[in-house]
Amino acid sequence: MDAQIAAPARREGTRLRLPPAVRSQQILDAALAVFAERGYSAARIDDIALRAGLSKGGLYAHFSSKDEVFEALLARALVAPQLGEPPSADLGAEALVDWLLDELYASFHRPELRAVLRLLVAEAERVPGMVARWRVTVIEPFLAAVGQLLARHVAGQRPNAVPSLLAREPWLALSPAVHALLMQLILPDDLLYPPERIRQAHRELLLLALARC
Amino acid sequence: MDAQIAAPARREGTRLRLPPAVRSQQILDAALAVFAERGYSAARIDDIALRAGLSKGGLYAHFSSKDEVFEALLARALVAPQLGEPPSADLGAEALVDWLLDELYASFHRPELRAVLRLLVAEAERVPGMVARWRVTVIEPFLAAVGQLLARHVAGQRPNAVPSLLAREPWLALSPAVHALLMQLILPDDLLYPPERIRQAHRELLLLALARC
Amino acid sequence: MDAQIAAPARREGTRLRLPPAVRSQQILDAALAVFAERGYSAARIDDIALRAGLSKGGLYAHFSSKDEVFEALLARALVAPQLGEPPSADLGAEALVDWLLDELYASFHRPELRAVLRLLVAEAERVPGMVARWRVTVIEPFLAAVGQLLARHVAGQRPNAVPSLLAREPWLALSPAVHALLMQLILPDDLLYPPERIRQAHRELLLLALARC
Amino acid sequence: MDAQIAAPARREGTRLRLPPAVRSQQILDAALAVFAERGYSAARIDDIALRAGLSKGGLYAHFSSKDEVFEALLARALVAPQLGEPPSADLGAEALVDWLLDELYASFHRPELRAVLRLLVAEAERVPGMVARWRVTVIEPFLAAVGQLLARHVAGQRPNAVPSLLAREPWLALSPAVHALLMQLILPDDLLYPPERIRQAHRELLLLALARC
DNA sequence: CATGAATGAGCTTTCATTCAT
DNA sequence: CATGAATGAAAGCTCATTCAT
Question: What does pTM read for this prediction?
Answer without folding.
Answer: 0.85
